[in-house]
Amino acid sequence: MKTLSRETDLNELLQRLRRLRPDSARRWGKMTPHQMVCHLSDSFLAVTGQMTVSTATGPLQRTVVKWVALYAPMRWPAGLPTRPELDQVRDAGTRPGDFAADVAELERLTARFAADRLGCARPEHPIFGLMSHRDWMRWGYLHLDHHFRQFGI
Question: For 78, which DSSP code?
């Protein structure tokens, strides 16, 4: 099971990120590659408490949905909704600036998130609720992987 806490998995993701281009072909969804980079950065900012994001959680999302999303042996499907504050298509979140600088920022945020051993000290996930360190590291890997697959990297 891949996770950001495993250095080889983290390095694999960072290498994939470096292959992203502004004109990488989208396989699904509406975000551009640049918007996706900003969405991922904003997601790390949100779950580390550096950006405010609304919650949409209930008993089902905090239990069954969380377990399936993080630990079931399946890829996240295309078209999953995000929180409004992270919806780049609707002009929310950080606006894309310089592509190379935004990619470098996502790489920095990813590495910092993976190195952070606080785990449970983070705010709750806006959908999954309370998360263990293991949950956070798995979520980080899966979220990046999901969007990288969106652009074929």
Answer: T
pLDDT at 92 (0 to 100):
93
**Hey, what are 136's tokens?**
């956070």
- Domain positions in the chain are 7-150
Whether the Cβ atoms of residue 92 and residue 84 lie closer than 8 Å to each other: yes
* CA pair distance 103, 100, nearest whole angstrom: 5
The model's pLDDT over 61-100, given as tens digits with 9 standing for 90+, comes to 989 999 999 999 999 999 888 999 999 999 999 999 999 9
Please give the Cα distance from 134 to 5 (Å, whole number): 8
d(CA 59, CA 56): 11
Its sign, for the CA torsion 116, 4, 108, 130, is negative
Calculate what percentage of the chain has a pLDDT beyond 90.
82
At residue 2, the 3 state secondary structure works out as: coil
Distance CA 94, CA 142 (A): 21
Q: What's the pLDDT score for residue 124?
A: 87
What is the CATH T-level fold of the domain 7-150, as seen in this structure? Four Helix Bundle (Hemerythrin (Met), subunit A) (1.20.120)
